[in-house]
Amino acid sequence: MSAWFNAAINFVLMPIITRVVSPAELGQIDMFITFCTMFVYASTLGMHQAYMRFFNDRLAGLTKENILAIAVKYSSVGAFIATIICFISANYFSKSILGVRNFSIVLLMAIYIFATGFIAICKTKPRMYGNTFIYTVLVIAESLTIKLSYLSVTITNSVFFSICILVILVLIIMIICAVKNRRDILCTISSIPFQTKKILLLYALPTVPVMFLSNINTSLPKIFLNKYFGSSLVGIYSGCLTIVSIITLVQAGMNVFWGPYVFENYKTQQKQIQTLHQAISFFIVFCGLGLLAIQDIIYYILGSEYRFSREFYALLLCSPIFYTIGETVGIGINIKKKTYWNIVTTSIALFSNLMLCYLLIPKYGNLGAAIAVAISSVVMLLIKAFIGERYYTVVATPLKTIMTITIYIVGAIISITFNKLNVIRNILIILLMLILVILYRKEIEYFIKQLRIKGYEETEND
């Protein structure tokens, strides 16, 4: 549900934002968010991952209440470490964001990192309890804080003050989370045995480098663009990412139930998990092709300064699409608690992205950044599939998954090649969507049948 609400927010607000906020201003605010995001999830020390993994396990001394307490308290240590790093690199961060030395911006970074990390831990709780309403509200609130900070530039006429507004809004959400979860957060953790804490940390800590490297991987194109071309191109790139985030939010919606469902049922429901993988692969690629087909409408309502991103829009969609499929095929790494493999996969993807950004961005700008992102996302997917499938088989029909990925890649190439030939481009993309439906016709028929059975049973019960 949160995915659809957020998609609606982006669809409504981005046309307004791109018409009243210049790419340079949007780019500066986004650089602040980018640098903070690099640290946020690493600063949690992976405790939100451990919370989800061990929530349904009965480890000695661990309850559904004190697991949140230990997650919050340990992540506070991570936030403190991230703060020290920010202050050590204060000169670099302030100049990259505002173009001048400004100690205050680094202080705002430290506050934002702590608050957002705290919220990330608290968001995990409603996911595990199946409380989709609370989770949806938190996700939407976080998304709105960013959009409102963009719009506030029109009032403040200052990027710095708009960042201040962003931090204040995030602090308000953090305080609400703290008040609502105060009983769990204030639970004592002294009664939890050392061995249990060790198990939690041994699972969580290996995810820290993964999250940090993953966020650096995502941030690299913006950092290179900012270095070589300034905040204007970052703003155009970020504007395109916000459009792409429509499908990222679909991806986030899938991840809400994928992880908890797999960890709870992997021992007994492997066939259902394989079917769910196929459903996710079909749906995410179908949505991606759909967004390519309606790109004329999307770019018509955007501000004219941001329409340049149309030439690399299809490439940026590769990242969320292939990441989502990669999360399903690589789930065996987490099931078998071999999380160190995530460090390997992320490092290889990061290295490929770094080399491609270094080679392509100075010459091709935003297009080079998009190519780098697309190729590194394919690299990540292939490595995760190779390693994850060794521990737990999710892909029952490898050829079908390969064809699904290929269909989107062909669609992206068509979108770029026929960028100005709208009719030809759309006809070819719709043909690809039909091919995808034919490829998954049995699965579609099965799900329609299940929905009819469920509807019939509900009618009978009434």
Helix content: over 70%
- Count every beta strand, where a strand is a DSSP E run of 2 or more residues: 0
Give the uncertain stretches in residue-range form.
none
Total domain count: 2
Based on secondary structure, the structural category is: mainly alpha
Order of helices and strands: HHHHHHHHHHHHHHHHHHHHHH
**Mind describing the biggest β-sheet?**
none
Distance from first to last alpha carbon: 26 Å
Mean pLDDT: 83
Q: β content, as a range?
A: under 5%
DSSP summary: helix tally: 22
Shape: globular
Radius of gyration: 22 Å
Task: List key phrases describing it.
mainly alpha; 22 helices; 462 residues; globular
Question: Which secondary structure elements does this structure contain, and how are they paired or packed?
Answer:
Elements: H1 2-20, H2 23-43, H3 47-54, H4 66-88, H5 90-98, H6 103-129, H7 132-156, H8 159-180, H9 182-185, H10 194-204, H11 207-229, H12 231-265, H13 270-293, H14 295-300, H15 313-316, H16 318-329, H17 331-335, H18 340-364, H19 366-391, H20 398-417, H21 422-439, H22 441-461
Helix pairs in contact: 1-7, 1-12, 2-4, 2-5, 2-6, 2-8, 2-11, 2-12, 3-4, 3-6, 3-10, 4-6, 6-7, 6-8, 7-8, 11-12, 11-18, 11-19, 12-13, 12-16, 13-16, 13-20, 13-21, 16-19, 18-19, 20-21
